[in-house]
Structures are given as C-alpha cells and as structure tokens.
Amino acid sequence: MKLLVPTLLLAATAVWADTLVVGDSIQSAVAAARPGDTLVLSGPRVFYERVVLDKPLRLIGTNSPVIDAQGEGAALTITQANTEVRDITLRHSGRDLTRLDSGIMITAPRVTVRGCRIENDAFGIYLRGARQCTVVDNIIVGDTNLPTAQRGNGIQLWNTASNLLTGNRIVAKRDGIYLSYADACLLADNRVTDSRFGIHYMYSHRNQLLTNNLTANVVGATLMFARDCVIGGNHIHANRRHGLLLKQVERSRIAHNVMTGHNRGLFVQQAAQNLFVENRIEHNDIGLYLSGGSEQNVFTGNAFVANADQVWQPTDEFDLGRRAANTFYAEGRGNFWSDYVGADRDHNGIGDTPYHETDVFGYLLDRNPNARLFALSPAVALLRKGEELMPLLDLGGVSDLFPLMHPPAGARRP
C-alpha cells in the first residue's frame, strides 16, 4: 500500500494538468494557471509584456508568437524548476549588461528552452545559478548596430553545473557561449559565427565541447583556467586570430578537431598535462603556438599540414628546459608533418629519421617573420631535404622521433 500512494498522486497530477490558450496577457494566464499546466501562445501575435514564470509550467508557441519586452529588463524570467519554453520569439529586452538584461533569464534548475528565437537583446539566454538545464535548437541573433562589447553573450552560464547545450545557432554576439564557474556541461553541435569568441570559458571544469562549428569569429574557442575537459570533433575554421586558445588548461583531452585558416591554429599557453591526439591543423600562419611555460603536454597522431610555420616556441624557453617537458610522440607514434622530407624504407608508416621543426629555415623565420612567404616553396623543401642528410645547425625546437608518413584516419580532412 505504501508504494501505491505516490503512484496515485502522480496520476492525479497528470489528470489536473490543463492546456490553456493564452488570451490578452501571458502574465495573467500564468497567475491563473496551476502547476503542470500548458499555456499555448498562438501567433503571429505579439505580446508586449515582460513575463515571469514562477510556477512549473509549459509555455508553448504555435505559428511564431512573439514576446516583446519593449526595451526594458528581461523578456522572460524563469524562477521555478521543471519549466519548459518552446517555439517562441523573444525580442527587445533591455540593453543594460550590468543589470543582466536578457532575452531569457533562468534562475531555477531543470528548465528546458527549445526552438526559440532571441533577437535584439543584451544577454540571449542567461543561466544564473541554475543547474541541469537543457538549451536546445535555439537561434540567437545580436544587433550589429551595436559595438561587439555592448551586445552581451549569446548563452551565458554562471555558477552552475550539468547543463546540456546542443544545436544552438548564435550570430553576432559578444561571445557566443560563455561559461564562468560552470562545471560538467555538454556543449555539442552548436554553431557560432561573427562574434568575438565563439566559445569562451573560465574557471570551469569537466566540460565537454563536441562537434561544434566555430567560424568567422575573432577566436574560435578560448578556454582558460580549466581542467579535466574534453574538446573533440570541433570544426574551427577561418576565425580572424586564433582557432583554439588554451590558457592554464590542465589534464584535458583535445582530439579530432580541425583548425584551419587562422593566424594561429592552436594557441597553448601555461598549459600542462594535456593530450593532443589526431587533430588536423592546416593552412594557418602558425600551426601550433606553444609558450608560457607549457609543460608535460603530449602531441601524437596530429596532422600539421601546410602551415607557414608548423610550430613556434619562444627561443628563451628552450634554455629553461621546458622544451623537453612537451613530447611530440607517444608509444612510438609521432605526428604527420607535411614538410617532412625523410624516407620510410621499411614501409612501417614511420619516417626513418626524426622530424626537427626548428631547422635552418625555422631559425631564419624566427628572426625574419616575412620569410613565411617562402615556407611552402620548392627552395625551402630542398633546403630541408639537404639538412636531413647533413644538419647545419644545432638548434632547440620541436623534435618528433617517430614522424608519420601519412595523416592518421582521425586527423584527415573531413
């Protein structure tokens, strides 16, 4: 009999829940609704009001309804757990970032926002102290008439954990997705363009960034002060400065990402004990920029393809012993280097001689950056071939003892 009571209560709750079509005012409908009810907004009507969901309700749009906050505060604020909002356009929130004006402000756990469009806002969707929320398949568009710094972030997470963000499209915001003190979140299949940082997080740990598309931003993704993360399968292309920037990131796995068409494809600074495996780093001015005392990182199975400078490290760091702390092979498996000119006489897929990134041309390049124009020329290839046979200088730099003759399957062009 003890097991029957909660079953009966759940059944009773399901019976009591109603579906109500909203009339003149959403907030009036919220006040009249009971927990568990569904409120339907019929479009293309525009509701000029600011709405607070303080009960566990479902707010569902049909035929593109709009909530217009008329330039003040948050268009929609959710303060109750187990709430769902779907298929609604929210626009014209306030623009005061210090007051956290937003298209949708969420302060309760287990909230779902799906299929909404948010435009002309400050912050798009703001999860503030809210855990276990789901933000899926939304479109967030910034106002390009404002300077980038005044637009707010597309999706912002603060003091939160265990959220799911997938399939969102974000255009022309300050940062596309920004996490601060946000742990154990999954960000997958999001697309961010024309923003400052596509994905940006600080002091956030155990997050997964998987199969996101980050294009035409200033920086594709900037991850700072983080540990135990997984960054995998992302396509990071043609951002104006860096593809993937890691600063003080520790014990993380960076695998199967594609970084093409940047000033610096992969920027690693003060990072330690990370594994970089089967990434494709291609057609960047500098493929890997490795500096700031980064130590004990392992690079294996990556493909460095046609970068003007495959790897760059400050020359003063060689004397500090930091070069030896980063390893460019593991268990007899190195990386593919498109400018490697060694042979593979035993046909085992591994070059017979080590790859030395800082050769004579690299020495010249560090002192004359304009020489990058000749990086892919036949003359430089001939110079490197000759140096394989008879090294001319003993220089510090990256050495791969087991260079791969072909890019691994996981690091080939998608």
Query: Which bin fits the share of residues in helices?
Result: 10-25%
Strand count: 40
Question: What class would the helix/strand composition place it in?
Answer: mainly beta
Point out poorly predicted stretches.
1-15
Rg from alpha-carbon coordinates: 26 Å
Relative strand content: 35-45%
How many domains is the backbone divided into? 2
Calculate the terminal CA-CA distance, rounded to whole Å. 59 Å
Strand order across the largest sheet: 1-2-5-8-11-14-17-20-23-26-29-32-35
User: What is the count of helical runs?
Assistant: 5
Shape: elongated
Mean pLDDT: 89
Major sheet details: 13 strands, parallel
Structural features, described:
- The structure is a single chain.
- This protein is mainly beta and 414 residues long.
- The model is unreliable at 1-15 (pLDDT under 50).
How would you sum up this structure in a few lines?
By secondary structure, the chain is mainly β. The protein has 5 helices and 40 strands. It has a 13-stranded parallel β-sheet with strand order 1-2-5-8-11-14-17-20-23-26-29-32-35, with helices on one face.
